[in-house]
Structure formats: structure tokens, C-alpha cells
Design a protein that fits this description.
It contains 13 helices and 24 strands. It has 572 residues and is an alpha/beta fold. Strands 9-8-10-11-18-17-16 form a seven-stranded mixed beta sheet. Strands 7-20-21-24-22-23 form a six-stranded antiparallel beta sheet, with helices on one face. The chain binds alpha-D-galactopyranose. The site of alpha-D-galactopyranose has 9 residues, from loops. Alpha-D-galactopyranose binds next to loops.
């Protein structure tokens, strides 16, 4: 009974659903290990086993448990991290609000509190909880590898659909990265979120091919209105994943259940059987995938990196920030949408990764950035790279402590400016920009040192910076450049800004296609290449293409007609 998870407010959850366990519970661990060991012993040498899939969507339902067992495990985790109580007190800033700890036993998980919980305690609990599941993943993986050392192993990660686990940390433990992806049915531009998550999957795989472990043939059953996919949409989704580096397309579920919690979730074989459009679309997809086997193992062309970090996400969304409307995924999505609309393919990578090969690097939101990661971005720009940084970045260190001196602490010198004051904006207000466009949510009053303004604020809403003050800046840095956005421009101006930035950096899209059409290129190590052209528009378009259509066999001598909603894959 002690292995059942406890919520923040102290409710112990009960069986009858799934993932009903506390990630730190030793009895659960013991029982789970026993099952894993038995499975591995029994099936390690079975000829049909080509890949081990550990667990299912780590952390989806139960990552954060607040029970006493978790409290004990948290204290151990903190001892390892800080070694001494003085270290912990300093890191958590416990002198504030008289929170100083004199004994490890006094430390609790961030349970229900009358006022804001200590932010570093909260942040560390998110790290600890992700690590607790990562430990389970590593233990179960090690047990399997003892018996099946040569069989690759994976787990289905969830990209931006899962805030609670650090996807990059889990991906490092996998022989092949796999992800699940489900569309947000209410979003007419859901295919852009799909592309973002596919680029993140590739980032988690360090550029190597990855697997789409799950997506849906049509509707899911867990959104407020579970809209069915339109004819052709599942095919576009599947091939968009392949375009962005997937070497597999798989589905939840095979045969639609007739009972249980997921009976209204679509499947490859739906309730109405083989006389259904879903079945016809799935089998057609299967035929098309067979024609694409040569693509397997090739890598995606991307000259731009977009920086993503779970720790920055956790920190930005802690309590008591200047604005609760500054949401990490909104920022990342808006920048990504601009890149997508411009036709640029980007790798989505952690801030500490090797950036040297990229022509341009975009960091939409790095409120928290470690010293090492900040130095990595500095050295990228110093070495000739082009870096664009989003508002309210570089602000706090690894412990969520405000960096000393003027903001943006970690990026002050790099950006050649200081922040005089942060000026959050009410959600209903718009801030006028000098080019006639507008921004929202956030503004900053900047003082420029070596940076120059490329766009300024215009007279506008109350609380916004004065007319003529800089909104977007540009700073030469040794051989490279570093730009800054002190606000959140509306999509058109964000797109123009990113377009100019990418052009100056020399980054080019895979092909010249209209907005709403995706063009992505995969290359083989032997010098071959495949151009994916995906039309999300309701009308046919003519796009540049030279080579053979891998599905129809047609050959294109410079252009091809892409029907409404159609996909063409060209062997160049
Ligand atoms: C997750 C799970 C599956 C299923 C699907 C439904 O991704 O891994 O078991 O519940 O969601 O969308």
C-alpha cells in the first residue's frame, strides 16, 4: 500500500488506473525489477525480439509523488547534490522567510503550503522527480542488458508533451530514441507542433534517425473534443515525421479496444473493421512506407539550432515571477512557428550541446541558464556564430538565484546591453512597435552599450517602454553576432526578425516553397538525398523539384505539382 503515489495535497491515490506507483518506492522497485529480470531471462534470445521498450511514457501520470518515502529519497538526493546543509541553505536561499534548515530531517517535498513554496526547493523537486524515474529507467535497462547485451533498447519519450521529465537525460540512456506524438485537435496549425516535436526527437537523438513509437490514425480520447483526422491528414503526419528523421511510423493502437478506458481512441483496425476509411488509409500508408526503405538511416539537413531546456522551462514557470503569462512553450512555439513558416529546418538541442556546425542559433527562452551553458553560447558567437536570444533570458543561475549586476546577467556582455527594468504587460494590452506592428505579454527598458537597435518601441500602452526605446537589438561579437528581443512581437514581425537574422547568418531553407508547404531534406552518407514536400494547404501548388517521385515513379525536371494536402518525396 505504501507504493501508491500521494498528491501535493496529501491524497493517496488508489489502484484502478495505470502508473499507480511512487517513483521512489523500494517495494515497487523490487517488484518491478523481478518482472523485468524474468522477462529478460525468458526472451533475451528469442529471435523475434529486435528491440526492448522499457516501461511506457515515463512520468506521464505519476512523476510527482509527495509521500514520506519520496521525502526520504529527496533528502538523499539533496545530500548528494549539496553535501552539507550549509550548501543546501545557501542554494535555496533559506535565510529569506526564515526557512533555514538545521537538520536534513526537517526538509519536506514542496507540499501544500499557505504561501509560495521556496522556489529552489520546488525546482529541485522537479529535478529530483525526473531523476527518480530516470533511475528506474537505468535500473530496468541494466537488468535487460545483463541478459540481452546486443539488443538495442528504447523508451517512448514525449517531447514537449511531457514537462515533468527531462527528455534529453532519458534520451542519453537509449540506444535508439523513440517518441510518441499526438496532435492537439483544437489547433488548426497542429502540424507545426508535430514538426517541432519531430525536430526535438532528432535533437534528443543527437541527429541520428529515431522512431515514432506512437501516434494516432485519427482521434484520441483524452482531449475535450476528440476531432477525427481529415482524409489524408494521417498520411501527412506520418510522412512529416519521416521527413524530420523518423525511421519508423507506429500507432497506438492496433485493434481498437471494445472495452476499457481507451475504446474511443482510434486504431489501425477500427471498430468498423476493414470496411473503413481508416483501414484503407493505414494500408495505403504501409504500401508507401515500403517504397521509402532507401531513406532509412539517412540524416536531416539542418543549419539552424533552436535551444530547448527542461530546466529553463521548470524555472520560468515557478511561482511568483514577474508575469505568469510568460509560458515557456508559448515562447518556443512562436519562434518555431516563424522558422517553420520561413521553411527553415532546425535541430532542437540542449543549451550545452556542440553548436559549432550551425549557421544560426536561436534561444527563445533561457530564464535559467547554467554558467557552462552560458559560456557555450558565448563561445559559439565569439567563434563566428549568429545567436538570437529571447526576452527575460540569462536571469538566474542553476539555483534560481538572480545573477549579480544588471540583467541580462549571463548575457549582458554578449548582447552589449543592460536591462533597466522589466515591464510585464497585461494579457489584453498590446505594445506598439515603430514599424507599425505590435508586441504583447512582455517588454523591457534597455540601455544599449555596444548593441544597436534594429526595431524600437512606438508610443503605446501604459507601462510599456517610452517611444524610441529599443525593442530588438543586434550586437557584433568578435567574429559573430548576438541579437536580443526585449519583447514578444506578434507573429508577422517575429517572422520578419527571424528571416533577416537567418539571411544574415547565411542559413537557407531546403527549397523555395510557399508558406504552408513543408520542404525538408534527408541525406545519406553516400551522398544521396531525398526532398520531402508536404502540402498543408487546401489548394495545389507548384514547387521546385528535380528527381524521381519515390511513390509514383514520376520524374521531375525542375518543378512538381503538389496537390492540396498531398505529399511528394523526391529522390534527388
Ligand atoms: C499514450 C500511451 C498509450 C495510449 C495513448 C493514447 O501515449 O503510451 O498507452 O494511452 O497515449 O493516446
Amino acid at each position: 500500500p505504501e507504493s501508491l503515489p500521494v498528491t501535493r495535497t496529501g491524497t493517496r491515490q488508489v489502484p484502478g488506473s495505470r502508473q499507480v506507483f511512487c517513483p521512489s518506492n523500494p517495494d515497487y522497485a523490487h517488484a518491478a525489477d523481478r518482472i523485468v529480470r524474468r522477462l529478460a531471462q525468458r526472451y533475451a534470445d528469442h529471435p523475434a525480439v529486435v528491440l526492448w521498450h522499457v516501461h511506457n511514457e515515463w512520468g506521464n501520470h505519476n512523476a510527482l509523488c509527495y509521500c514520506d518515502v519520496s521525502a526520504t529519497a529527496f533528502r538523499l538526493w539533496l545530500r548528494e547534490r549539496y553535501e552539507t546543509l550549509d550548501g543546501l541553505n545557501a542554494a535555496w536561499g533559506t535565510d529569506f522567510w526564515s526557512q533555514r534548515y538545521g537538520d536534513w530531517q526537517e526538509i519536506q517535498p514542496p507540499r501544500d503550503t499557505p504561501a509560495f513554496v521556496n522556489p529552489t526547493q520546488d525546482l529541485d523537486y522537479q529535478r529530483f522527480s525526473s531523476d527518480a524515474l530516470l533511475r528506474r529507467h537505468r535500473t530496468e535497462s541494466a537488468l535487460i542488458r545483463e541478459h540481452a547485451p546486443d539488443t538495442p533498447l528504447t523508451t517512448n519519450l514525449m517531447g514537449t508533451l511531457e514537462k515533468k521529465i527531462d527528455g534529453f537525460a532519458f534520451a542519453e540512456q537509449c540506444d535508439v530514441v523513440s517518441v510518441d506524438h499526438y496532435l492537439t485537435a483544437a489547433d488548426p496549425q497542429a502540424h507545426i507542433g508535430l514538426a517541432l516535436n519531430a525536430d526535438l526527437a532528432r535533437g534528443m537523438a543527437s541527429g541520428a534517425p529515431w522512431m515514432l513509437m506512437e501516434h494516432s490514425t485519427s482521434a484520441v480520447n483524452w482531449q475535450p473534443v476528440n476531432v477525427a483526422k481529415k482524409p489524408g491528414e494521417m498520411r501527412r503526419n506520418s510522412l512529416a515525421h519521416i521527413a524530420r528523421g523518423a525511421d519508423s511510423v507506429m500507432f497506438f493502437q492496433w485493434r481498437q479496444a471494445k472495452a476499457g478506458a481507451e475504446k474511443w481512441h482510434s486504431a489501425m483496425l477500427p471498430h468498423n473493421g476493414t470496411q473503413s476509411s481508416t483501414w484503407r488509409e493505414v494500408t495505403r500508408l504501409g504500401r508507401h512506407l515500403r517504397a521509402l526503405t532507401d531513406i532509412r538511416g539517412s540524416t536531416v539537413d539542418a543549419h539552424i539550432a533552436l535551444v530547448f531546456d527542461w530546466h529553463a522551462w521548470w524555472a520560468l514557470e515557478l511561482d511568483a515571477r514577474p508575469s505568469s503569462h510568460l509560458r515557456y512553450l508559448d515562447l518556443v512555439h512562436s519562434w518555431y512557428e516563424a522558422l517553420w513558416s520561413l521553411g527553415h529546418t532546425c535541430d532542437i538541442v540542449p543549451p550545452g550541446s556542440d553548436l559549432t556546425a550551425y549557421r544560426a542559433v536561436l534561444a527563445p527562452s533561457l530564464y535559467l541558464v547554467t554558467d557552462d551553458d552560458a559560456e557555450n553560447l558565448h563561445s559559439y558567437a565569439r567563434g563566428g556564430g549568429h545567436l538570437l536570444v529571447g526576452a527575460f533570458s540569462g536571469v538566474v543561475d542553476v539555483n534560481d538565484h538572480v545573477r549579480p549586476g544588471p540583467q541580462p546577467g549571463a548575457f549582458r556582455d554578449l548582447l552589449g546591453l543592460t536591462v533597466d527594468e522589466y515591464l510585464p504587460v497585461r494579457p489584453t494590452d498590446r505594445i506598439a512597435l515603430a514599424d507599425g506592428s505590435a508586441a504583447h505579454t512582455w517588454a523591457e527598458r534597455l540601455v544599449l552599450h555596444s548593441a544597436a537597435a534594429t526595431l524600437r518601441f512606438a508610443p503605446g500602452a501604459a507601462g510599456a517602454p517610452a517611444a524610441g526605446e529599443p525593442a530588438i537589438t543586434h550586437n557584433p561579437v568578435a567574429a559573430g553576432t548576438a541579437g536580443y528581443l526585449a519583447t514578444h512581437p506578434e507573429p508577422a514581425v517575429l517572422r520578419r526578425t527571424i528571416e533577416a537574422f537567418c539571411r544574415a547568418a547565411g542559413a537557407r531553407p531546403a527549397a523555395d516553397v510557399p508558406v504552408g508547404v513543408e520542404a525538408v531534406r534527408r541525406r545519406t552518407s553516400a551522398g544521396g538525398s531525398f526532398l520531402f514536400l508536404i502540402n498543408h494547404l487546401d489548394e495545389a501548388v507548384t514547387v521546385p523539384a528535380r528527381g524521381t517521385d519515390m511513390i509514383s515513379g514520376l520524374s521531375y525536371e525542375g518543378k512538381c505539382r503538389l496537390g492540396a494536402g498531398d505529399v511528394v518525396i523526391v529522390r534527388e
